[in-house]
Amino acid sequence: MTEHVKREISDGVMTLTLQRPEKKNALSGAMYDALSDAVRQADVDASVRVVLFQGDGDSFTAGNDLADFAHQAGAENSAESPVHRFIEAIINASKPLVAAVHGNAVGIGTTMLLHFDLVYLADNARLITPFVRLALVPEAASSRLLPLRIGHVRAYAMLALGEPMEAAAALACGLANGVVPQGELRKKARDAALALSKLPGGSLSQSKRLMRDLQRITAQAAEEEQLFKERLKTAEAREAFAAFAERRPPNFAKLPI
Ligand code: COA
Alpha carbon of 109 to those of 63, 65, 129, 230, 253: distances in Å? Predict the structure, then answer.
């Protein structure tokens, strides 16, 4: 466990709280590992019936730690990276996943939601997937699941232009179950998790499996991951990460395509 992820179990609900507010809950390797371990534990722990994700501070999460990306760009990647394990864990989770999302949900902060069963947004939530702006490609099977959910052109605007999706629009196009004032978000999500915890768990797991094309999702995530790793090593990605670190706009025009 890392001090940046709090894990609590009560009344059948495992609550995972991201606690790195000074970095907008950007996910480090240790945080991914803590989340993956928790989701896997939930699947085999009879005292857990539902897993609930939430974040402290003003953002749900700023996504993958960009310093880690910059570091990975120069290193050999192992197949079993923390982000790989996390994506695998949420793809394969058999118990219900519920999210309470406020503020910015960037990158995997949004793509993970495509694997959640109930999603509640605070009215200030913004879903942002700036993969192409970072010279990367979408991950967590989002290149398939997002167009399926909201249609190609809206998904393209999010994934390619990095256009933020505000809470109300996200609700309207099926990315969330509800939008509530921020002060009511945690209660709304917890009440939903508690309602799920009272349902027959075997029936819930089987229904979830029937509702998702696990084989297709796994194959898409694997194809994305291969390209993503290649892209991390490109001059375009180096420029994107350097620009973030130096707080300046990137300049891709000088780079070969
Ligand atoms: N990785 C590492 N550090 C991050 C981060 C990330 N993904 N997102 C934010 N931070 C850090 C900033 O570097 C800053 O650190 P510092 O105080 O030591 O300089 C701190 O968190 C606050 O971020 P800041 O950018 O000042 O906050 P903001 O409110 O102006 O903007 C965001 C918030 C989330 C919109 C903005 O930080 C952002 O765009 N982050 C990058 C998101 C991203 O591209 N993620 C990867 C997706 S694949």
Answer: 5, 11, 8, 22, 29
